Amino acid sequence: MLRRNNILKHFNNILINSNKKNINNIYIYNTINNNNNSFNNNNKPIMHFSTIINNKKNEDEINKFFKDYIYKSSNYSLEQKKKLIESFVLDSQGGNKISKEEIRNINISPISSDILESFIKIRDDLEKYNCQPTTTSTSTTTNRLSEQLYSFDTLLGELIKDNLKSHHQLYCRPLDIEKMEPKIWRQIVDNEAVHPYENPLNPIDEIKQRTGKNRTCLVLFHPLLPNMPLMSLYIAFTNGIPNNMRIIENNNQSSNGSSSSSSSSSSSSSNIDSAIFYSISSLHKGLGGVNLGHILITKAVEYIRLDKPEIKNYCTLSPLPRFRKYLLKNHPKFVEHIKDRASLEEVKPQLQSLALNYIFKEKSKPNRVFDPVCNFHLKNGASVYRLNWDADESEKRIDESYGIMINYLYDIDKLESNSKNYIEKGIVSTNQIFDNQYKNNRFL
To answer: I need a surface site. Which of 29, 85, 178, 285 has the fewest CB within 10 A?
Structure first.
């Protein structure tokens, strides 16, 4: 009981006192026991604020740590940052870890922007530290954090989630280097995960290409963090649903990949009927598990319907980031045969079959597809529209999936039912084009 009250006291002080510097009386959650009736229909304790404490020293110390963290750690190595965080956590917890029950029962109050930014930065640094290869292993999947740091990271994730995931407060802004400060658009460029900038040190021309005619990038913000973009979504407006990245990048081809004149190309506004989401990236590792992507896509659709009412199709052109790793683990001899472009074409029918099966049948757990990008879009209500061969010739995409990509269709009228069917029953919604690809492939 004492340990729980100490933890609750510390973090309620952070949350409430951050915006009320002169208040000495801080209300904290009163631990509920089984002798009262303070439970809701889900048998979860209801929070009460009746205990008054006076512990100004601890309030000041905790607030100071979070307010000073970004500045103090700016020149630290990841190892030094980890030790700084660990020292604070052990002092705050008395060496004890935070349980999941304690995390769920902590009251979430509005917090100041500098402390919320520190929450994200601390989680970002812990994730980067955790992903460093160890001296004994090259694996980056092993958790290198102590139980105390892991619990602390989980707690900060819960606090970030509850303070950011207000659908009505989050808003989108187009990426515009004329209207955004460099420190803002620099974060967007440096953290682009799906299609990294070719020249990130001098990205102006590439930004203009990605946000030029019939192209845009919508960026998700929260009022508490106006200088910290949260997620980015790059969009191409095209005639039809493209099957390769060359159409997106060149901005002068029709959706079937053939060149066309300027009067009838995808850059002609009179022919535009599709919005293609070809890259969505979380811009901070500290937002891991916060899951803001569905909010960004929803707001992007709202934005486009107002700005471009002629748009009929909302679709993606998405990677398969784990496909080759899946093949290496499950079909190693098949992968050994692929040595160059010629050998890749030789096994095209078999590789397409494996990709179709990977998307539609392979599971990471019951009722969840194995591919993380597919899982993300299906949870949001999209359907699998089409598998595309030779869709992206970049080194990154060849290494991930031999250049194969997927279109996911966001049919506005079916989003709710598709999402419900997948989340509750694991049903993978598909389009007729994908169904035909799957049924007509002789290797399945």
So the answer is: 178
Rounded to an integer, what distance in angstroms lies between the CA atom of residue 376 and that of residue 381? 9
Q: Please, are residues 362 and 370 in contact by the beta-carbon 8 Å criterion?
A: yes
How do residues 249-283 score in pLDDT, each as one tens digit? 887 544 554 333 333 334 456 689 999 999 999 99
CB neighbourhood size of 1 (10 A): 7
**Contact, 175 vs 188, CB < 8 A?**
yes
Which residues pair with residue 86 across a beta bridge?
A: none
In this prediction the pTM is: 0.79
* Residues 128 and 285 sit within 8 Å (Cβ to Cβ): yes
Of 260, 190, 406, the closest CA to residue 250 belongs to: 260
The pair of structure tokens assigned to 246 is: 């060359």
The amino acid sitting at 375 is: N
Encoded tokens for 335: 């992968």
**Residue for token pair 């999402």:** 419
To the nearest 10 degrees (0 to 180), the angle between helices 147-164 and 2-17 is: 40
- CB 267 within 8 Å of CB 238: no
Q: What is the pLDDT of residues 405-437, one digit of tens each?
A: 999 999 999 999 999 999 999 999 999 999 999
Q: Are 290 and 165 in contact (CB under 8 A)?
A: yes
Handedness of CA 125, 130, 132, 136 (dihedral sign): positive
CA distance 315 to 436: 19
